[in-house]
Amino acid sequence: MQNSSIRRAVVAVAALSAAMVMTACQPGDAASGSDGSSDAPTATASPISSGSTGTAIKACAATALKATAYQAADHPSGTGTGAAIVRFTNTGGKACVLKGHPTVAGAANGSPELNVPLQVTPVGTASPVKLAPGAQAWLKLTFVQVQGEGDGYCKSGSAPVIYPTMVIGLPGAGAHQVALNDGQFAECDGTLTATAVSATKPS
Question: What DSSP string runs through the chain?
Fold first, then answer.
């Protein structure tokens, strides 16, 4: 998906969306391997039971999280990204809580000031996840897949769009700019589904 016609689509979308500004962290370091398994922590993440208020544990601050992304093994057939896993690691010194479905924006040309908000359809219920220091939590983004070779195409008739990075927001935990560890985000129609953040790693 590296040809000029798709890149022109990115530039056009970015120009139309320059007013849509949102702040974000810098992209997380790329993980080694398809799922970054080499840096998996020994600490654990755990869901908070419905009978627990979790009031003693605060939401994870944006500065206490490292976010990375990689292509999901289980994704729609096609030639684009299809689906991606976003991983959050608690880099702080205290346990904290993550909860909720994400907001997602494409960062055109990798520049957060040119963010293009995407339409997210939440999938599943959201439950609080307690992250011990060093522990990880995940969510999955599933895009409308690009079809075909070369220029590629979208079944809807719209042009595929490539984003070097995306900005992922979580309730109370800030916004995090992530890049795929093995390419760029290629999607159709500006819509996707997203799971809530979870202590269980999706495929």
Answer: --SHHHHHHHHHHHHHTTT-----BPPPPPPSSSS-GGG--SS-EEEPPTT---TTSPBPPGGGEEEEEEE-SS--SSSS--EEEEEEEE-SSS-EEE-SPPEEEEEGGG-GGGEEEPEEEEES----EEE-TT-EEEEEEEEEPPBSSTT-B-TTSPPPEEESEEEEE-TTS-EEEE-BTTS-EEEEEEEEEEEPPBSSPP-
